[in-house]
Amino acid sequence: MDWLYGISTHWTWLLFYLFCLVVLLQLFYYWVWFSRIAFFKPRPVADPARPAVSVVICARNEYRNLENNLSLILEQNYEDFEVVVVDDFSDDESEVLLQQLQGKYKHLKVIKLRENVNFFKGKKLALSVGIKSAKNDVLLLTDADCRPAGEKWIESMVRNYKGNTRIVLGYGAYESAPGFLNKLIRFDTLFIAIQYFGFALAGKPYMGVGRNLSYHRSLFFKAKGFTSHYKVTSGDDDLFINQVATKDNTAVEVSPESHTFSIPKKTLSGWFRQKRRHLTTGRYYKKGHRFMLGLFHLSQLLFYALFIFLMVCCAQSIIGLLAAGVFLLRVISMKVVLYYACKRFNERKLFLYSLLTDIVLTFFNVLFAISSRSHKKNKWK
């Protein structure tokens, strides 16, 4: 370790100044972008919109999830809506279940795809068919493994359609369960939401999640659907929104009744594969969005790496004391923003573990990013 103590004072001060610059950048992101959703106060919607809605769900071998969740959607407290389920080449008992539900719910429309066409990657073909088969212009998308928070999910998501609004971003949460992996996945989901909600409120929307997303059918056709990224496995949600969202046509909905819940991966390897697949879409974002997201994650990595280095080299010096103070400033800022964001998204328990999960995710994201560069396998979901 002698070489560490042999580093010149000149270089350690330069590293400290770099550390301060990185912290300033992090503070900018937290207080200029992320705080927008943490302290967001939705205005009461006078005379909320109540358009006719088509809920679109794609399912492949989702018998159990359809059995558990579909009735919760079909029994929403909303006047005019249909539910379109696209059974995408399932070989389980989904078709029988859907036929039974059709006999009970007249507003359920089922489309059975019987050929595994590989023109679109992932579920984009099934989703395109579902959207084209919908009878209403306002679409509300979710997945078969998602359950709405309550019977007013549709109402809360679509009440924002006023003026030029054509897109409404919702929050798709994961169910709470014992274990650190569950907390890590849920914190990752929460932090991604803080980012895309925060940027949307700043007039720079860049993504949404297909577990809870609404937009106009006419917007889908105007953008020619998924044709610009049909070869990409994922992206039926974030790449499409990245393509069509603007500061004028995008609204957010954060009320607890607007949330959806699904079951997260239960193994690290399963989550790793899911993250790797999702990150492959990031390279197709608009350049400005790639830059602002990449700069944040780079500064986050440098923040922890430089702090560790300065503590190892200079813990007993004035530089070490100053670095500890600067580190504390950033952590306090992060904690304040996350405290109110956790309240906003009804994820209060995640706040207790936020520093640890932030550190772990920072270094995990490096592995995810490296792995996604070589990821070529295409899957439906």
Protein architecture, described:
The chain is an alpha/beta fold and 381 residues long. It folds into two domains: 123 residues, no CATH class; 233 residues, Spore Coat Polysaccharide Biosynthesis Protein SpsA, Chain A. Helix content is 51%, strand content 12%. It contains 13 helices and ten strands. The strands form two sheets. Strands 3-2-1-4-8-6-9 form a seven-stranded mixed beta sheet, with helices on both faces. The protein has a three-stranded mixed beta sheet with strand order 5-10-7. Helix 4 links the parallel strand 2 and strand 3. The longest helix has 30 residues. It is elongated. The N and C termini lie far apart (48 Å). The N terminus is likely disordered.
What is the terminal-to-terminal distance? 48 Å
CATH class of the largest domain, named Alpha Beta
What CATH calls the topology of the largest domain is Spore Coat Polysaccharide Biosynthesis Protein SpsA, Chain A
- Strand fraction equals 5-15%
Query: Residue ranges: pLDDT <50 for 5 or more in a row?
Result: 1-7
In the sheet with the most strands, the strands line up as: 3-2-1-4-8-6-9
Tally of helical segments: 13
How would you sum up the global shape? Answer: elongated
Helix content: 40-55%
Radius of gyration: 23 Å
Number of domains: 2
Mean pLDDT: 92
SSE pattern: HHEHEHEHEEHEEHEHHEEHHHH
CATH-level-4 superfamily name of the largest domain: Spore Coat Polysaccharide Biosynthesis Protein SpsA, Chain A
